[in-house]
Amino acid sequence: MKIIDGTQRLPELKELIVEYTDSLHMDLSFQNLSDELAHLEQRYVPPYGRIYAAVADDGAVIGCIAYHRHDDRRCEMKRLYVKPAYRHLHAGRMLVEKIVNQACADGYKEMVLDSFTDTMKSAIHTYERFGFTEIPAYYHNPMPNVIYLKKDL
C-alpha cells in the first residue's frame, strides 16, 4: 500500500467520499456536501487544499484524506476514510501523517478538524496520537456529539 497525490484520481476519491458520508448515516447537507462532491478540485487541489489517496498493491483506492485552506495560517483536515476491509493496514495513520506533514510544508501554522465522539473513537484516538487537542467550536455544526480538534504545525 502507498499514499499518493489524489489529484489524478478525483473520480475514485469522490466515490470513496460518498461511501464514507453514507456510512455515517447523517445528513451532512449543512456542509454543502453536494457542491463539494461536484467540485473537489475547487476545495482540495492547490491552491485551495490537498487530497491524498491510499492505494492498495492491486491499484485500488482504499482510503482518502484532504485538507482545505481556511486562511494563510489555518487549514482544515477533511474526509479521512479507509474502507473497512483495509483498516488493518494502518492506512488511516499513514494518511494523517501525510496530510499533516504536507500542511506544514505548505506553510500552515495550524490544522483543525471536527469528528464525532460516538462513532469515530478510533479516528479521534489517531488524531490525538498526532498531537491534536480539543478546542472550542470553530464553526457551527448542528450534529450531536461533535468534537473539535487542533494541532499546531
Automatic annotation (TrEMBL):
The EC code for this enzyme is 2.3.-.-
InterPro entries hit by this protein: Acetyltransferase_Enz, Acyl_CoA_acyltransferase, GNAT_dom
Q: Which UniProt keywords apply?
A: Acyltransferase, Transferase
Please give one Pfam family short name.
Answer: Acetyltransf_1
Q: Domain N-acetyltransferase, which positions?
A: 1-153
* One term of GO molecular function: acyltransferase activity, transferring groups other than amino-acyl groups
Q: Does the keyword Acyltransferase apply?
A: yes
PANTHER family membership: FAMILY N-ACETYLTRANSFERASE, PUTATIVE (AFU_ORTHOLOGUE AFUA_2G01380)-RELATED
UniProt protein name: GNAT family N-acetyltransferase
Q: Which organism is it from?
A: Megasphaera hexanoica
List the taxonomic lineage: Bacteria, Bacillati, Bacillota, Negativicutes, Veillonellales
